[in-house]
Amino acid sequence: MPEGGYGWVVVASCSMIMFFSVGGFYSWGVIQAQLAVETFGAIVMGRLIRWMGSRNAGFLSCSLMALGQLLSSASSRNVGGLFVTNGIVVGLGTSLSFMLCSTLPSQYFKRKRGLANGAVYGAAGIGGAVLTFGVAWTFRIIGFSIIALTFPACCFLKDRLRRSTATIEWSLFWDPRFVMLALGSAIGTFPLLVPPFFLPLYTDSLGLAASLGSILLAVFNISSALGRVGFGALCDVCGPITSLSLALILSALSLLAIWPVSSSLTPLVVFTILNGLGNGGFFSTIPSVVAHIYGPVRVTTVFSMILTGWAAGYLLGAPVAGWLLDAYGGSGAGIVAYRPAMYYAGSLSVGSAGFILGVRVLTTKRKWFSFA
């Protein structure tokens, strides 16, 4: 397997696409419609990529994202219209581009696979810090920017390995490593969106300036971008399963040990940075884990099956935390009311880490210091 070469061109192209596709996820509430389309359509999108090829799939995904943003400019005052244009149309394009950009770099790298995936996902984190939504012209600018910047990037996408594989590998459900990886990553998605949804509300409960909520969200997204690159690079040093485990442990510690005692700005900033790092590390290491265990040829099929299981966490993780907040008095009851939601998110991160460590034990056959 080659190490780099044309693969770095593919990484740069995928990074540009991910900047726009996943970068908007942390912007506002239509995210839920996009996430629903992304997760439920993962298996179909994986099959579509194998049928069309990476370059054609890239053009199709970017066309849908651009079209959805331009249509959203005409629906900026209609919530129902936005759920169709920005939720479904952009969501379909995002789902296809996410599957494509998450799996294609693995065809070109082995030793530096983690760094390659980290760079691609890091661009998504930067996009989350830069892109904003709101008025009609913002949608138009983003739509035209997608056309101008991602279409040229799609020209450089190229498959290195393109073989016919099953849409669903049913035999994987008898593989304990796959079952534990699927369960662990699915549980791990529940706490991911809790901090970015709660940070503005939490800063208000502390009596801090309203602008600090937006600043902390930007810090969270920048930290997430750094975590994607950092933990991606760590995959190449100590192994992708180990790197994923460390990212989940960092998230759990920040949620259980730091956020509950963040009664002032300083510890809250520390929490935001550490949780952002762990959050980003979760996303960037999963494709490397799949490729490490199942190889680059099967990565699209296996990753699409795992991604489908993330739907419940994406859609219910933050709402459950919100329900817990309301049940304990709401934001007006002070920061104590947030703690059940913090412990809920943190305990799920611990459980997720436990499953992933189990995958590592099965993969290394109890050779604790093996690369995995």
UniProtKB/TrEMBL annotation:
An MF annotation (GO) of this entry: transmembrane transporter activity
GO CC terms, sorted: membrane
The protein's name: Monocarboxylate transporter
Cellular compartments annotated: Membrane
Similarity section: Belongs to the major facilitator superfamily. Monocarboxylate porter (TC 2.A.1.13) family.
Entry keywords, A to Z: Membrane, Transmembrane, Transmembrane helix
Membrane topology note: Multi-pass membrane protein
Top-level taxon of the source organism: Eukaryota
Main localization (coarse): membrane
Domain Major facilitator superfamily (MFS) profile: 177-372
Transmembrane segments: 6-31, 83-102, 114-133, 139-157, 178-199, 205-229, 241-262, 268-290, 302-321, 341-362
